[in-house]
Specification:
Pfam family, one: MarR
Protein name: MarR family transcriptional regulator
CATH topology: Arc Repressor Mutant, subunit A
Structural class: mainly alpha
Organism: Streptomyces triculaminicus
Strand content: 5-15%
GO molecular function: DNA-binding transcription factor activity
CATH superfamily: Winged helix-like DNA-binding domain superfamily/Winged helix DNA-binding domain
Shape: globular
Number of helices: 6
Radius of gyration: 18 Å
Distance between the termini: 24 Å
């Protein structure tokens, strides 16, 4: 049985609404947790994504934003002594962003806070894997 274009459009609109609603809940969750640590949501996102040394461009990709926005965020984190810029080991034009000891400790605390009552915590690990796979599949299709 084929679906009419109208029915398909309604289903897609509803699905987009759910994805958008989830994204908004996640963003609000990050904002709330970040505020308890004296961080902005962007700073918290940068810390969350800094799982190791990386370039500004790599961090921008992980944060899904422009490198210029990342520079602004990293400047603030650097002023707070949470991040340092080090020479890149193989590219003299680039800098490696590295968490300081204080930044590493704050990141660990942030990750703990983000795990508490996360919008996704109502899903089992198996359900989270299925959702991850479906979203990844949707993103790679044209």
């Amino acid at each position: 049985m084929t679906t009419s274009p109208e029915t398909q459009a309604i289903a897609e609109r509803q699905l987009c609404g759910l994805v958008n609603g989830l994204a908004q809940r996640i963003a609000e969750h990050v904002r709330e947790r970040a505020a308890t640590l004296g961080l902005t949501a962007s700073q918290a996102t940068a810390l969350r994504e800094m799982s190791g040394p990386m370039t500004m461009r790599e961090l921008a990709e992980r944060m899904s934003c422009e490198p210029s926005n990342t520079t602004f965020v990293v400047d603030k984190l650097e002023k707070q002594s949470l991040v340092e810029r080090h020479p890149h080991p193989t590219d003299r034009r680039a800098k490696h962003l590295v968490l300081t000891a204080e930044g590493t400790a704050l990141r660990a605390r942030l990750l703990e806070l983000l795990a508490v009552e996360s919008p996704l915590s109502g899903l089992s690990p198996q359900e989270q894997r299925v959702l991850h796979g479906l979203l990844e599949q949707a993103l790679v299709r044209p």
